[in-house]
């Protein structure tokens, strides 16, 4: 395929007309940048092209100068000549400002259209179309159905898709590819131009963009233009002082200080973080230090985002803590340096972020990755090396997503009023993600749409026609982004709105008593008001010792990155085994990886301890299964999605074998399972060694039926098929009822496909099983938990319940709780305490010293609560602990051992125990079922943080 390189010595700008070259001189463009040099000649010749080049190298002008030249030279202009499509409205604003000058100089009218465009402006555009229209994928959907706009769009000759990597891996992008084919039904063949900073599979994305009609690839390697440093700051005396000032630990203080110093050393610095909560937490610390650093993320209002962008651009502030939205080229002026706080998790993400720096011709983009945890350090080093080498992850295109087929079939009916089913099918399958859509599959979707009254299927004529629900459905579903209701979070103490929670969180998690973090603070839910879509909360004044019920899920780490971390561990372990010390081993890595001696030495500590204990080291080709008590850890360096797949498989099969729920927690290097009694590492090893790799997909689909993930995805997909309303009752929808109703429909098929595509890696996991069973991957066990096995990051937990789990589950739960230990403490005389197993607690606990029944039942690690009760004058923390102890004692005094049992369960404190006990039941088993449900809720809801 051509790379667009012009003949030696030939200036790319000579391919443009006199007026455009005059504009270039006026604008100060003397020589073309590398992407302009290579891409303008094929673009000026009308070829389709995908231009991949670092941010700040003039990609917009690369695409638009040939487009402007073509429009300027045209003798007659009637409708819209060019569409410039961006994934963000904020980018529309920037593009309009950036293109206006060229438009005015070349007498080419440029305008913007998106969801906020006024009705007056829309009418004006329909009556007098601009030459260039900057828009979003969703607005294109609406434009394709308007009578006047369809006429204007019939003259389109060029379509530019900016940040194409962002769309290629989403359903929005799959929808856009069909939208472009619908546009193709209106217009003559038009030129397609894609722009991106980096893509891991350029040829595939080129096919995505063009419908596999041929695409010139112009790729300027981003890795040759970047310089990374991975650092774990060494705490200083100043950090000790800062830690006290910021009320944090010294390691966090050292990172805050390092960021502050980097910002001070540069004129303009972007500080990227992986979550909005981290952005807020860092921002609050910089505010306390009075540092000139702002915060930018998607939960802020549009006005607040624009204000901070302008402040950064003008130099009013020197740094900006930001999340992924700032990856996409929003104009904030020149950026000198980029800090990545924590591992970026993916190569593409790091290149996209650090590529924001050094926006000068041929300047190097400089980035610092600040790390702390050993996993983070190895991961960041691997990602940085891979970024320089250009080893970028491939785009995860949604092939054959049936809810997009449904959405776009209705769109085609809206375009034409009525359409031959065969014509609709042919339009859909011209789009690259749907090239393999079978006719039978398409007809199943059509029948589902007809049954939901979104269109009318005329069977005899094989025609699709509008029905009463077509118009309403289409305009309510212009976007493939799931339409989730938002709940206001309302602080009862201050009478202020804290923020918002999405519907998925509220439906699956939000019940009174649960705790979560928002805006960097911890909150306890008091009430959920369904009618007002409001969650009422109170602040937890001192969250020390309080574990949030809801914690964050991580950006998935790819298998290739995790595998390199495993390889690094293996190399280090080999050197430790032959007597190497940490400093010497660290120095061995420095020529290959962009770290420093101190950072690598710290990260190597767990590997060194692993070797010292004599335990096998998990690597890219060795899995170590270890266990202690009811915890089994599978050390497997295969990345998030493969480990999630293997973890679900082990959970389902061990759960089926024992009839008990199995807790699961996954990170890129470990699968942690909480198994029932009399189960251990050997049971997990058996699953890995004996499961037929060819059965992985079917086994997982069976397991998914009992997961909240599938049920929630099913509801979202059902909404895009117009099916949800048929099954909604009062208030919350019945997920189990919905599953039963839709199981044999394309709605269910798509929900399963999406979960497999987004969360799992079935083929890769099956390949791991094949490698285990062939001996290519070693599978070994350790006698107890090892330093590496216990060193993971928490990433969310979900209990997977086998279908036969009932009586045996209740019995296992009862046995576990009765074997757990509690502290009994008399709150009357405050002298007597005893640590004992739950099974040894009498029906009515009583103090042997004073005979009082006012006895608290506390967790084994809760000695501080006992000390707080005995204290004279109490601080706020002791008051909180004392209050909790008295609530426990009141419950034990009223309900005896039943209260002790309830409070010994995981995630069940006095508040939830009182709710469980208050229910009227016919037998003891129901009491334990209620406890089990609370434990499941506690475990399940940890995966809903975004």
Automatic annotation (TrEMBL):
Query: Quick check: keyword Repeat in the entry?
Result: no
InterPro entries, per this entry? ATP-dep_Helicase, DEAD/DEAH_box_helicase_dom, Helicase_ATP-bd, Helicase_C-like, Lhr-like, Lhr-like_DEAD/DEAH_assoc, Lhr_WH_dom, P-loop_NTPase
Q: Name one Pfam family in it.
A: Helicase_C
Q: Does the keyword Amino-acid biosynthesis apply?
A: no
Mind telling me what this protein is named?
Helicase
Helicase ATP-binding domain sequence ranges: 40-217
The Helicase C-terminal domain is annotated at 258-403
The Gene Ontology biological process annotation of the record reads:
DNA repair
Sorted keywords for this record are: ATP-binding, DNA damage, DNA repair, DNA-binding, Helicase, Hydrolase, Isomerase, Nucleotide-binding
GO MF annotation terms = ATP binding; ATP hydrolysis activity; catalytic activity, acting on DNA; DNA binding; helicase activity
